[in-house]
Amino acid sequence: MQRQTDVPSRRAGLPRQLRDRTRIAAVKATGLLDTGPEQVFEDLAALAARVTASGRAFITLVDETRSFWKACVGVDAVDVEDRQNPVEESFCYFLTGLDGDPFVVDDATTDPRTRDHPSVGPMGIGAWAGYPLLGSGGEVLGSFCVIDGNPRAWTPSDLLTLETLARAVGAEIGLRQSLTAAQNAHTLSANLAHSLQQGLLPPTPPAVPGVEVAASYTPASRAGRSDIEVGGDFYDLFRTRGSSWAAVLGDVCGKGVQAAQVSSMARYTVRAVANENRAPADVLAHLSTAMIAQDAPRFLTGVYARFRLTPAGIAGTLALAGHPPALVRRADGTVREIGVPGQLLGVFDPIRLTDVRFRLAPGDLLLLYTDGATEARARPGRPGRKQDVFDDADLARTLAATAGMDAAATVEHIGNALAARHAGWASDDTALLALRVPDHHRR
Predict the structure, then answer these.
(1) What is the pLDDT of residues 22-53, one digit of tens each?
(2) What is the pTM of this model?
(3) Pick from 404, 399, 306, 309: nearest CA to 356
(4) Which of 70, 129, 226, 390 has its CA at 20 to 30 Å from residue 106's CA atom?
(5) What secondary structure does DSSP assign to 312-333, as a single string?
């Protein structure tokens, strides 16, 4: 191993690279400064001390003011504040000026680079050998070094061992940084996906005078996959011109950003068209035409209902577009389906859709839902899981059992039934929207 003899001596001052902003940022980015001992680093340092028979070994991080000992063997220092010394009292700063080369001293008391160094006597440094710890951009983060109390000639085997272990420490640091970056990116993506999903849903259902309203959204489980994927289910409830209100609920095929884009476009297209006070089938047909014109990358199923309050309760009209039928629960618990199956949105032009009228009396409830409510099942492979799916008949029975409950209690009861079936693993996104005429209805 070629010895470094052209580096500045102590008298020449500290290397300029020591205070390089990029290097300092890289050191801080390791997240290891001012942290306690960790077994992986202590073990590597102990191995270096044992193989080289030096007695002391250090893994250090060097910032602009100090040499922090992430690991130290042969020195009685446990507390973080004791595991460091001023940078000018450490040999480690030499490495910052060598652009990745090692710093090797056989006799610290006679070597012109170190003989005047203030640590030679107090730290009992006879011989010193160190390899740099390099960041992803080649920055010198610190050193992996060994110290012998007596002068000695470091053998090629000693230096190869030290070089190899220094690379291992650098790899460990890099792996940790990559993992942290991935976790941060995942968290950011998850937050963005959550914000995007929330943007597809009203923060809380608006108050409709004389009508109880409740809604819920449960995202699908992402077991074994990324859990940051935004779903394509959405719902909306808003007032149209005059005294009418509109409720829409849809389910875009697939997941991800494209599904979210289609959901967003669908929601706001429906709002714009609904203000023209069109019939539900016309509103959905207009949405389908808009999707085709814009080359929407996903198709969509949907249900749209327009309704108004009457002295007897609610009078409305709804249309289905490739979507499960709406359910009406009468005050006595009787449940029936509402709607005529229609074609998918964004596929057919022209599209065939049918308007169907409905009425709700006091105590009656209208439920709109996506197919996650009729596909709930336990996670595949779970021991003892039920093999059957929570299907249309199960949903109807569950809804019938809510007779007498208000809208909020009804939605909660259905959500609990679904959770009981899938046991915490939802196979698909599920949106529920319920409208109920209070028992003592007055227009």
Answers:
(1) 999 999 999 899 988 888 899 999 999 999 99
(2) 0.57
(3) 306
(4) 70
(5) TEEEEEEEEES-PPEEEE-TTS
